[in-house]
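[recover] target loaded
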């Protein structure tokens, strides 16, 4: 009997499993929302929901009550539109590129206007269509990345006709150091935000990313804008992580061997063993989002035992020193933990010299994905491999 690809995948045998716990995602959304009962909580689902699959993540958040979604690019907004109820508001953080006006207005996508040029472009589109179009207005409160500079805000206030045909859904800005609660930039940005938004009475204010939500009620305003904390990442660099882990990653062993002292391991012969060493090669590498900077620095885990990465990370594989495990522990196909109870996203990111955001967004499409759905949908499908 011919097996479909779907049936074959259901049999197991993948080289790596990325498990995405949508019940934890939902709980994280509700936890963040509960921090500010008077604010609305949106979800930042840019970069394919930080790599976890925006088409799957966004509807779960919608069911949890989320109605505002932020993506970075217009194309992300266009594809999200197909997977989310029509009453969901979709904002594009990088704003309006020339040529996007028609698709934005036709599909009810809300651009974040980051410059006076974009304001003019959107106002012109409203005039062409003869209707009012919604937009968010971003101001730069001190990060110098996106948004209107203070002098541009003044020009806008002095010339209200510039906003003709535009309905401001919110006025927003982004915090540069929200994960460092004691950083002076937070209060400085808050101060600029307050002074600016006072001049737009009645327009909802949207300021806090994940870290901002934990800076206190001053930062909450009308609409919050978390990303990483939804996906289990730590909102603060100094406090314990209150979020539930969403992602776990295990990778299969494809070969084990014992090598004598003085053996080279991996590309560049960067490691030379000093004693007889037991090694296991696992089936994921830098093409699977495990940075090459983990070479001889990071580790995998098995039953709580740390298995150091031995030598360079290759494109499709990594060799581990498994001398700490009893002989015969691994058989072909045994799974080691890369992200899970023994190794958080933050821990592996630190070993790689990067941040949890970068690890998460690079995990890529080569792992077999397992989505664990919240209770309500469990009857239909408890675990589903997404790539089927
Ligand atoms: C990415 C992003 C967010 C989400 O930030 P997190 O730190 O992941 O919560 C919010 N706002 C803007 C403008 C962003 O670019």
């Amino acid at each position: 009997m011919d097996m479909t690809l779907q049936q074959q995948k259901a049999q197991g045998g993948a080289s790596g499993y990325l498990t995405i716990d949508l019940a934890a995602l939902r709980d994280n959304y509700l936890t963040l929302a509960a921090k500010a009962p008077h604010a609305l909580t949106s979800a930042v689902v840019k970069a394919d929901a930080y790599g976890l699959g925006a088409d799957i993540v966004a509807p779960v958040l919608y069911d949890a009550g989320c109605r505002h979604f932020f993506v970075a690019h217009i194309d992300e907004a266009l594809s999200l539109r197909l997977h989310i109820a029509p009453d969901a508001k979709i904002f594009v953080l990088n704003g309006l590129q020339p040529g996007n006006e028609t698709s934005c207005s036709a599909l009810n996508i809300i651009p974040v206007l980051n410059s006076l040029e974009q304001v003019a472009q959107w106002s012109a589109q409203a005039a062409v269509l003869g209707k009012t179009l919604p937009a968010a207005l971003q101001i730069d409160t001190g990060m110098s990345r996106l948004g209107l500079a203070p002098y541009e805000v003044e020009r806008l206030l002095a010339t209200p006709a510039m906003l003709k045909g535009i309905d401001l859904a919110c006025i927003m800005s982004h915090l540069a150091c929200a994960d460092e609660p004691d950083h002076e930039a937070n209060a400085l940005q808050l101060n600029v935000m307050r002074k600016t938004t006072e001049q737009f009475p009645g327009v909802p204010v949207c300021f806090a990313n994940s870290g901002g939500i934990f800076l206190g009620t001053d930062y909450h305003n009308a609409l919050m804008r978390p990303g990483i904390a939804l996906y289990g990442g730590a909102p603060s660099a100094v406090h314990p992580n209150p979020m539930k882990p969403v992602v776990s990653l295990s990778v299969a062993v494809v070969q084990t061997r014992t090598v004598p002292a003085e053996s080279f391991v991996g590309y560049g012969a960067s490691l030379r063993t000093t004693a007889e060493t037991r090694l296991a090669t696992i089936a994921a590498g830098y093409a699977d989002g495990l940075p090459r900077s983990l070479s001889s620095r990071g580790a995998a885990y098995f039953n709580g035992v740390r298995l150091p990465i031995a030598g360079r990370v290759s494109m499709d594989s990594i060799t581990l020193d498994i001398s700490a495990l009893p002989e015969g522990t691994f058989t072909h196909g045994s799974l080691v933990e890369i992200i899970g109870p023994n190794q958080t996203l933050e821990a592996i990111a630190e070993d790689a010299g990067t941040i949890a955001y970068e690890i998460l967004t690079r995990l890529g499409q080569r792992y077999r994905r397992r989505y664990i759905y919240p209770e309500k949908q469990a009857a239909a499908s408890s675990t589903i491999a997404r790539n089927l």
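[recover] notes: The mean pLDDT is 94.
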